[in-house]
Amino acid sequence: MARTVDVLLPLPIDLLFSYAIEENTEISIGDYVVVPFGKKRLVGIVWKYSDKSDRELKFIEQKINLPSVRPKLIAFAEWVAQYNLIPIGMLAKVIMGGVLKVNQIDKLVCVEKDQEISEISCQLSSEQQIASDQIISNLNEYSVTLLDGETGSGKRKRKLSGSSFIKAIIFGNIGIENCSIDTMCQLLNEESVVMTKQGLDFRFTKEAVEFMKRMYNESMALFKNILQVDCRILQQFKSVKLLDSSYISLPNSMENMYKGYGTSYIGYESNTKSGIKLQLVFDYLNQTLDQLNITEGIRRV
Asked: Which domain of life is it from (predicted)?
């Protein structure tokens, strides 16, 4: 049975891809490798060992003679992806420098540790020499040196924070029909956060879903502790259930899965041929969701 590993590819998705290793081939974590991907061949990084079976897995084609990515850099990349809510695949190009491609492998030169590199001599002007001396003197401490430009000129107004992300999703889907990523980007712009559609789309990862779940649970706890109704009549019941029913329009391409009205539903005008009816039962006293039903939006006669 061949060994298997998970490889990070420079693709804007939050997934690792499993590959098998040929016998008598030495592959370690952090190695640069060439792997088949569909009809293409891509350069990837061996990210971790896998326990998947080698059955039906494609084999690594080539190991590239480059220094391996250090474990600390792998851990740091995973932290950056989780902290910024971006797919881990987007960081592959950053690690590779954005220029490592299959057709450029033969042009790469690997310098051995014990190989001496000759110094490059150049004549500096008096101003350049002063700048060089200043930079060298700051190498032993943390500092930032501005070579050219204006500080703050390329700085984003504000970074995308967790609170801004939640506001864009919640306010974008409350009271706005057919909310799109464009709408959410406009809401973020009102929060002084400049974000493109592609950039926001990349933030919808598994970590973002887990983040929203945690925020929902915390908001429910806040609702239970603060927004209690002082009504004695409710104390005689073990539970008080609230029923909410909503109609959500879907793309016409989903008509075969969920049929819609195509006309109107309780005063809600809709020209879509597909839709769902969402019924939610919430136990107010126990602060739990008792039931969630999703059915076709078509009216049953």
From this structure: Eukaryota
